Amino acid sequence: MQDRTSVIVAGGCAVALVLIGSLFYPKFLSPTYLLQQLQIASFLGIVALGAMAVILLGHIDLSVPWTFTAAAIASTTVAGMGSEAWWGILAVPSGLVVGLLIGLLNGLGVAYLRLPSMIWTLGMNAVVLGICVLFTGGFNPQGLASPTMRFFAIEDSFGIIPNAVFLWAAVALAAGILLRRTAFGRYVYAIGNRERATYLSGVKTNRVLIGCFMIAGLCSAIAGMLLAGYANQAYQAMGEPYLLPGIAAVVLGGTSILGGRGTVLGTVVGVILISLIGSMLSVMQMPEAGRQIIYGLVIISMLLLYGRSQKAAA
Amino acid sequence: MADLGLYFRQNLRPWVAFAVLATLFVVFIAMHPRGLSVFVMTTWSNQGVALAFAAVGQMVVVVTGGLDLSIGAIMAITNSLASVVVNGSPLEVAFGVVLVILAGAACGLVNGLVVVYGRIQPIVATLASGAVFTGIALLIRPIPGGDIDEGLSDALTYEVFGTLPASLLFLLAVVIAIWWPYRRSIMGRAIYGIGSSADAAYMSGLNVGAAKISAYVLAGVFAAFGGLFLSLQTLSGDATIGFSYTLNSIAAVVIGGVALSGGSGLVFGAIVGAFVLRTISAMMFFSGLPPLAQPLIEGLVLLVAVSFGALRLIRTRNRLQILG
């Protein structure tokens, strides 16, 4: 019930935002503008889906920024190795491997060492940053996006719909099926509610934890390569602006930060809302200070509307 | 003697962290070309004090079972404010300092009210309020700059009696003056009770809401001292310093043996954790390692430092104890 409320409120706000904006800038209602918004939102959208998989467990992944960057650096470097076609073909898989590997290490630390995810993934982020700096020499890495990356990042299908939107939709669909239609998905929600009970029910909870962190790493990597395809290069710290907005989008979409409750649809709507706010403010040429303030106030007021925890559990 | 043994058993992790810090410090001094001197001590202390204030503030909130992701933003806001008001005549400087601390307290109060009465999870509430604080800091100081009273800066960033770093004494004086009485008050006990079990604390008649709010206010005050000290160090204000301090303050409290699940932790541990982090960074500078390898080594050391938390698994008799 609460899941539905948050989707309706957040979705309603997004629609209202577009309608009010269109009073001042009529082009807001044009399909081109709206599709362009979705294309820009797709980076954050994919990051948020991964973040959600981990948040549903009651954990958090703070290694998003440099997993994102590392995958982008890996894939563009491989694509720039030579002019033979197979370097381009290897680019995306190498980025995905980087994401999965970081996710695996994150998961191992949280599951087997039982370290708080907040601090373990923070440490992993620092290590991956160190590896990226060492590898690139601190400069913007050489290399370029492979044809596959550019296909998903900048090209359109059917003449108008950006491929990035299809990719985001595909990831969202896969996440939805995984969370709602498989045993694994059930375990994720169960662990988010109470890991001890799930473990006593015979579920190998450590494997589920590792699986979710790997999904998060994979999503960060996909988004990183998508942005690298969009910019036709990787650059240092390109993932930094996606960590906190990603978490904010997940929470605005009705997912409990304590885990165990939340929907994919909510996360998608949360991302759309967050990126619409950002794009409206930049159209209004709002200075950075005002943007930050409005952004924070919107999150607080939305959560006051529907994100309040039960009184007893406060 | 029995009491002392019990004390060490109960507070093992902060003292392990202290042993680590002592070792790191000895290595650092051995590496340092100028060896152990008042100058080296003062520089070392100055590098750690701002983060130590942030870590103490973070610890107070973590003890209640919460988390303050706006610590860095409060430092940014107070740092920016200090570069506007902490200058002029001695009276104006004193007034400015009070204003800066009150601003920090006000930010903390907002956090506390949103968490307690808004019933929003602390991580999310402070994530959002942090964005607001950063925005306000940018309004106060859009580009780095401003003016800080140099007399106050000199007084707090050099040494006193020619031997002791003033910044370290400043840190200890502020922490003792604020934390000591608070820890001994009912509020101070209540935050530990809430961190262990909010329901039990409520049933015992403690004012859970007021105690939580007091913890966030205190965090704001300590963050304000951190922001103030940073402005004294750099003689300017900068609205963009925040985020790294937030993350480092969390790392510092964990290294200092404060449980992120709440209910336990010493201020001593938080300060030690902050200085461990800063000593590692300082060591990197003199280590002779290639500069490009330093971030990686720093990251690995952080990862290893937090891995010590896994040692508790060895003492666990039942798997269920470690599952949430």
Description:
The complex is a heterodimer of chains A (314) and B (324). Chain A has helices spanning 2-24, 31-55, 64-79, 85-111, 117-136, 147-154, 163-181, 183-193, 195-200, 205-231, 243-252, 264-283, 288-306, and strands spanning 156-157, 161-162. In chain A, helix 2 crosses helix 11 (243-252). In chain A, 53% of the residues are buried. With 314 residues, chain A is mainly α. Chain A has a two-stranded antiparallel sheet with strand order 1-2. The mean pLDDT of chain A is 89. Chain A contains 13 helices and 2 strands. The radius of gyration of chain A is 19 Å and the shape is globular. The mean pLDDT of chain B is 88. Chain B is an all-alpha fold. Helix content of chain B is 74%, strand content 1%. In chain B, helix 5 runs antiparallel to helix 11 (208-234), helix 7 crosses helix 11 (208-234) and helix 9 packs across helix 11. Chain B is globular, with a radius of gyration of 20 Å. A two-stranded antiparallel sheet of chain B has the order 1-2. In chain B, a hairpin with a 3-residue loop joins strand 1 (159-160) and strand 2. Classes of the chains: A mainly alpha (314), B mainly alpha (324). At the A-B interface, helix 5, helix 9, helix 11 and helix 13 of A face helix 6, helix 12 and helix 14 of B.
